[in-house]
Structure formats: C-alpha cells, structure tokens
Design a protein that fits this description.
heterodimer; A: alpha+beta; 2 domains; six-stranded mixed β-barrel; two-stranded antiparallel sheet; 13 helices; 12 strands; about 55% helix; B: alpha/beta; Rossmann fold; six-stranded mixed β-sheet; four-stranded antiparallel β-sheet; 8 helices; about 35% helix; about 25% strand; globular
C-alpha cells in the first residue's frame, strides 16, 4: 500500500465535506487552544511569582525569635526579646557564606507632614539592608555609620509614602514625623512595586535601627535578622552557619531546641512554585477534558461517516481496495482532522494568550513543551479515536456495503 | 478459437440462514471466452446476483472451481482477491455508485489509486483516455450531480475501463435509465465489445439481453437455458429508429 495515496484519498474525502470537517475539528481546536492558554496562564503565574520573589532577593535569609520557653511556658514569637545586636555582630564574624547581615526592628504608625498624614511602617535597619532586600536608593543618600551610632533622626522614604505625604514636592531635606519623632528625609527608595502577595513594597520608611530602637520603640533587643547568602549555591551553607552562630550566641546546649526560626526566600519560592504547579496541573486537567470531549466528537463523526459512506466503502473494496487500505483511509482522515485541528488550536491558543497578556496584562508563558505535548496528544487522539471507526469500515463485506441503502 | 476468460466448473454456493441452508447455486458450469458479450438472465432469487458476486471475486464459492484469466480464485486470500479485482475486473452498477462531490475525472481515477505501480501522471492520463472513450471528454471536471443519469453511467463505465480489465461485469446497468438512455449505454457497450472487451451483463429485461451475443438464463440455482443470440439488436440503429422527441 502506498501511504502517499492513502493520504491523498483521505484528503480528497475531507475536501468533499469541508464544513463538516471544520465542525469536527472545532472540538479539538477549542480543546487544544484551551490547553495552551491554561498552561500559559499557569506557567505565567509561576514565573511571575518566581520573578517577584527574586526581586525580593533570592539569597534572602530571615531569622526571628521563636520556640522560646520561659519556665516551661512556650512564648509567642512577637514578644520574644531573645535577639540582640551582638547576635548580628557574631553572624558577621562567624559566617563566611553570608555576605550581608542587618538587624531589623519594625513599628507601624502614622507618618505626618504638615497637614497630611499616612499610615505606614518604619523599618530600623543598617545600611547593608538595602542590598539584602534589593532596595535601591532612588535619590539622595543612605545613612552613615556615624548616623547609626548617634541614633540620628534621619530616614529614607518609599515612593508610596512620598506620593501620599508630599505629592509633587521634593521630600529630600523635609521632615516627616513618625510617632512624634521628627525625621529628616535624606533619600528616596527606588520603586519596587507589589510583591508576590500583593503587598506594596514602597509603603515604608527606613531609618537607622538604633533610631527606631531607642527613639521610637524604646527597646534594646532586635526583632529579626535579615541576611543574604553570598550566592544562591551557598544558601544551605549560609542557613547552617547562621543557625550555629545564633545557637552559640544564645548559649544553647546541644540538645536544646532553637529559640529562633530561620526562613529563606528560596524555601518560599519553592512553596509558591509548587502551589502554582498544582494550579497549572488543575487548569491543564480541566482543559484536557475538553480535549477528550473533542476527541470523542471526532470518533462520533468518523463513526457516523463510516455508516454514511458504506456504499463508498463497498465501491472502494470492489475496485480493488483492501481492508487495510480502507482502514488507513479512515485512520488518516481522523489523524488529519486532529492534526489540522491541533495546528489551528495551537495557533489560536497562542493568539489568545498574546491577546490576554496585552489586554488583561496577565503574566503568561508559552512553553515549547506545552505546544509539543498538545500536538502529540492530538495525534494520539486521532489514532485512538479513529481506530474503532476505521476498523469497522475495514471489516465491511463489499457485497453488503454495495447494497447498503 | 478465443482464449477462455471465465471458466466455472461445478460451482456451488450455499448460504446458512439460521438452521436453514439456502442453495443459491447448485452446480454451475460456464465458460466465457474473450470478446463475448454475455447476458446473465433470470428472475430475482434465481442465483444470478450470487453468480455475479462470485465472478466479481467479491464472494467465494462453497465448492467448485473458478478460473479468471487462468487464475484459480479458490486459493486466493482476501487481499489477493482485492488485487485481482483491481487488475482484472471492472464493475458497472445499477445505481452508478459514483463518489459525490468528486469530479468525473477523479471518480474514474479511483481504481488506479489502489494500484501502487501507477504514478499520478499516468493515472490522470489513463482516466482522461477512459472518459474520452465513453464520449465525456467535455465533462471531465463536472460533479456527478451536474450530470444526467446516462452521463453518470458513462462515467461509471469509464471507471470500469480505466484499469484495462479482462472482463467488465455490469449489474442491471440500464435498470435506472429510460429507454433512449439505455440504448445509448448499450450502444457504448456494443462498441466496447466490438473493440474486443469481454462483457458480462446481468439483466432481467429480455429486450436488453438482445443486444448481447449470448444469453445464459438462471433459475433456482441452475442454468436452464444457454443460447447464442440470433437477430442481435444493434443499439445505434435502434436509437435512430426512436422518435426524436420522445422525451421532449
């Protein structure tokens, strides 16, 4: 049997019923397009989460108090006062895998300028913190060692705070009051936008940690430690070294539990990625069902088509077509329908994805693997759902088929 | 003496319908030589259709032998029979059996598609030649629904000719046509027969059978009469005799 001939015969048969062929393909077209779009949305959201996490600093490691016990009573994390500045200094000294480390103290409250006020947070940090959290200095300057040592009343403000308190006035050199403490604005932070969870990362004020500790919170401990690993590969080593350093600083015995917790950004990236992987799988499965329905639609039409074309099959058998030839014809018809439908569906899916990303601004990523998969699945559906009707056509008795009314 | 195209000896065919056995053919002996134009006649149930199915290699006999162009079909597999139909036989049916929405030319090409030795160029040339032979060279790209019944049957005849078969098997080929068109088709077949084609024509109409060289009459699975046609009708002359405005 000549396969080229089989393909020609199948193509001719499809050409005779263009509209029906198109309607049959529609199921596959929609199925494939929705698979492509859904996977693109899933992959896109995963990528956007990863990007935003990376924007927060991929090497980021947090340590905060936790798991502390006082006389057998386990304390909550927030009121634990176990972390000291000396811990930070020890980490700086003990941990070669950590490039930058900063103490962190936070307070929230109302920032006031003239007759304007705005609820925001103040972060007390050292000047390595900008690097750790991937903040840039948009304009102005960061604070100096001397300012840290003297609890200087200086601060840097985020874009959101600037917009709400100053409008179009340049805030550098102005004073903002936070909890009745006047702070001189020495710089503006570069814009970061929202993070992966929709939090505005520009709605904050940064001041020397000493200033926040002594002047605003009136405390001597620090609330958490932010550090960054020297490189992404050193993440695990950095966490290990930081844990050891903190344990030795806190004089914990070998068997004692940590009185602090360590979280790294890469862990969070993994968590969120796996969530969006599940979402992608779910979306893919739902659109996979529509692909399956499309496949059944093709089987249905092929089956009806075998019955409707019984006489044609009888004629083909009588002029010398063998059972195999008839089988190939119907199988190839089914495969062609699926493959054409698949190609149209893939193009449509890609177009829909592009439209969606440009109009709705959704993050989308079309991966080669999803296109290849969709195409392979289509061909497989063509063979799988074409097989039964083709088998039926091939097994017809030519005498009965010729007489079929 | 012309060579034997069809040689049938003691051919029997039984059908089993539930517990009952139907003897459709009860020992047929028949020889058809090259260049003959044979009418197979008989009422319905006489076994003539069964005979045609076996002659057409669409069905196998229960017993007996059948040689087509020297090949014994009893030992052939299903696929080999299909090959035999493709190379040696041409079929013409009562209801034409053309593929709808397919041009006359493509319909005629159909049998050649199943012959892997023939390339597309040769296929086209042979189909064009066959359509010319039936006088439809100006209708090659017409669809069946743009053709009259007689023209459709001509396309079907062209299709049966295209593989240059040793015998053309026609099954009530004029059954759906009016008298004038029937005569036209018979004129065409007589012309083909004149040029050497062997034709077996199944019919129950006695006046159609008069166009042929020999009549074989079936009844209840036997051949009851077999005779050469004397006073053979000439279709071209009969056409001239028909009133011209008959259909108008």
């Amino acid at each position: 049997m000549n396969y080229l001939n089989s393909i020609k015969i199948a193509l001719n048969a499809l050409k005779r019923n263009k509209f029906r062929a198109f309607l049959t393909m529609l199921g596959i077209i929609i199925g494939v397009a929705s698979v492509i779009v859904m996977l693109a949305i899933g992959q896109g959201s995963k990528k956007s989460i990863q990007d935003q996490m990376a924007g927060m600093g991929t090497n980021l490691i947090f340590a905060f108090p936790g798991g502390e016990q006082k006389g057998g009573v386990r304390m909550g994390n927030s009121d634990a006062q176990s972390m000291k500045l000396s811990d930070v200094e020890a980490i700086e000294k003990d941990c070669p895998a950590i490039s930058d480390v900063s103490p962190e103290v936070r307070s929230s409250g109302q920032a006031v300028v003239g007759n304007q006020n705005w609820p925001t947070s103040i972060f007390g940090v050292n000047n390595k913190y900008f690097n750790i959290r991937k903040y840039t200095i948009g304009s102005g300057r960061s604070f100096t060692e001397n300012e840290i040592n003297t609890y200087a009343k200086v601060c840097l403000v985020g874009k959101t705070v600037v917009t709400n308190l100053f409008g179009k006035i340049n805030p550098i050199g102005q004073t903002v009051r936070f909890g009745n403490i006047p702070l001189l604005i020495i710089g503006i932070l570069g814009e970061k936008g929202e993070n992966g969870m929709g939090q505005d990362q520009d709605d904050l004020i940064m001041a020397p940690y000493t200033t926040v500790q002594k002047r605003i919170l009136a405390i001597t401990h620090i609330q958490s430690i932010a550090a960054s690993a020297a490189s992404e590969n050193l993440n695990a080593a950095a966490i290990d070294q930081l844990t050891k350093s903190l344990r030795s600083s806190h004089k914990l015995k070998d068997k004692a539990a940590d009185d602090f917790q360590v979280r790294s950004q890469s862990e969070m990236v993994q968590t969120f990625s796996s969530i969006s992987d599940i979402m992608t799988a779910l979306l893919g499965a739902i659109s996979g069902i529509s692909l399956l329905v499309g496949g059944i639609g093709i089987m249905n039409i092929m089956y009806v088509s075998v019955t409707e074309r019984t006489r044609e099959i009888g004629l083909r058998l009588s002029v010398g077509g063998r059972g195999n030839d008839i089988m190939m014809q119907f199988l190839i018809e089914s495969i062609l329908l699926n493959v054409f439908g698949g190609i149209i569906g893939i193009s449509l899916g890609i177009i829909a994805t592009k439209v969606m990303s440009s109009i709705l601004n959704w993050p989308v990523v079309i991966t080669t693997i999803s296109v290849v998969m969709a195409f392979l699945v289509c061909s497989a559906i063509g063979i799988f759902f074409g097989w039964y009707p083709a088998r039926k056509a091939a097994s017809l008795n030519p005498i009965d088929a010729l007489r079929y009314e | 003496m012309n060579k034997s195209i069809i040689q049938v000896n003691q051919l029997k065919k039984d059908f089993y319908v539930g517990e009952i056995t139907v003897h459709a053919l009860r020992g047929i002996n028949l020889e058809i030589k090259q260049g003959e134009f044979v009418a197979i006649m008989g009422t319905s149930g006489s076994g003539k259709s069964t005979m045609l199915n076996i002659l057409g290699c669409l069905d196998k006999p229960t017993s007996g032998s059948y040689f087509l162009d020297g090949i014994s079909m009893g030992e052939l597999s299903k696929n080999e029979l299909a090959g035999l139909r493709n190379m040696k036989l041409g079929f013409v049916f009562q209801s034409y059996n053309l593929l709808s929405r397919t041009s006359a030319l493509e319909n005629v090409e159909l049998p050649l598609f199943y012959n892997p030795k023939i390339k597309s160029k040769e296929r086209r040339e042979r189909a064009e030649a066959a359509l010319e032979a039936v006088g439809l060279s100006d209708r090659m790209h017409h669809m069946p629904n743009q053709l009259s019944g007689g023209q459709q049957q001509r396309v079907a005849i062209a299709r049966s000719l295209v593989n240059d078969p040793v015998v053309i098997l026609a099954d009530e080929a004029t059954g759906n046509l009016d008298t004038r068109t029937s005569f036209e088709i018979m004129a065409l077949l007589q012309d083909l027969n004149q040029k050497g084609k062997t034709i077996v024509f199944v019919t129950h109409e006695a006046d159609i059978a008069k166009f042929m060289t020999r009549q074989v009459v079936f009844r209840d699975g036997h051949i009851i009469r077999e005779e050469l046609v004397t006073n053979r009708n000439n279709a071209v002359e009969l056409l001239k005799a028909l009133p011209i405005d008959e259909t108008a």
